[in-house]
């Protein structure tokens, strides 16, 4: 079975690299294209057996499963322009949160799904968020779940929690990278530790924390209890966080949802 990927930007490239490294798809069965075709050829340098097509119509014709990895406001034009090529036996998969599977099905006659990946999938880890259209064939559902399982933990979500789920899974790595960098900067500014040493220590701490959670040795609350001895140094640090963080995360989710509403409004105008 041939798999096509339209768009080799940040997330498209991560998806391609993860699928290749997990051997979920053989390179010879993968067809890719991009508006700036040079970006697609850069991936072919990395995976010589991957097929690069300059014509999107040809990619869709020759692929059975097609991932659409373009910006939200570019998806409608791709669907409408190439609709005749998305025949009933195929499956179209969007990777962007503002486009629902219902919107995909309103344009296309083939099976439709949405897979929202995360940068963590590049390490064959983390979560991918899945939604299937009402008319998505059960065979396609099983196949997509199987392929995505090779690069992540697939989690089915309802439409009403799409944004917050994506905030946690897809945006979360950037948010916590920002917080970690601030954590490191604070250590460097307030003590004699250097940037390189602080970065190594913080990075290894996060990896260890992830392993504790992955192996279910501790839960998040238990971790705090184990480290935070009453009247100890960690407790003082937690108190500083409680005093200064305030409602920062509530504001974060408000901000992402406000931007999401803007994106939704744009897609509603296109899809009707």
Description:
- Strand 7, helix 6 (138-149) and strand 8 form a beta-alpha-beta unit.
- The chain is built from 11 helices and 8 strands.
- Helix 7 (162-190) runs antiparallel to helix 8.
- It folds into 2 domains: 3-157, NAD(P)-binding Rossmann-like Domain (Rossmann fold), CATH 3.40.50.720; 165-252, ProC C-terminal domain-like fold.
- 56% of the residues lie in helices and 12% in strands.
- By secondary structure, the chain is an alpha/beta fold.
Descriptive terms for the model:
8-stranded mixed beta sheet, 8 strands, 2 domains, Rossmann fold, elongated, ProC C-terminal domain-like fold, 272 residues, alpha/beta, 11 helices
Write the layout of secondary structure elements.
Elements: E1 3-6, H1 10-21, E2 30-33, H2 37-46, E3 51-52, H3 56-62, E4 65-68, H4 72-82, E5 91-94, H5 101-107, E6 111-116, E7 127-132, H6 138-149, E8 153-156, H7 162-190, H8 195-214, H9 220-227, H10 233-245, H11 248-271
Parallel strand pairs: 1-2, 1-4, 2-3, 4-5, 5-6, 7-8
Antiparallel strand pairs: 6-7
Helix pairs in contact: 7-8
Beta fraction of the residues? 5-15%
Largest sheet: 8 strands, mixed
Contiguous low-pLDDT stretches (5 residues minimum) are none
- Please give the order of strands in the largest beta sheet: 3-2-1-4-5-6-7-8
Which CATH C-level class of the largest domain is it? Alpha Beta
Q: Count of helices?
A: 11
Q: Separation of termini?
A: 34 Å
Helix content: 55-70%
Helix-strand makeup class:
alpha/beta
What is the succession of H and E elements? EHEHEHEHEHEEHEHHHHH
Mean pLDDT: 96
Q: Would you report the number of β strands? A: 8
- CATH fold name of the largest domain: Rossmann fold
CATH superfamily of the largest domain: NAD(P)-binding Rossmann-like Domain
Radius of gyration: 21 Å
**CATH architectural group of the largest domain:** 3-Layer(aba) Sandwich
Shape: elongated
How many domains? 2
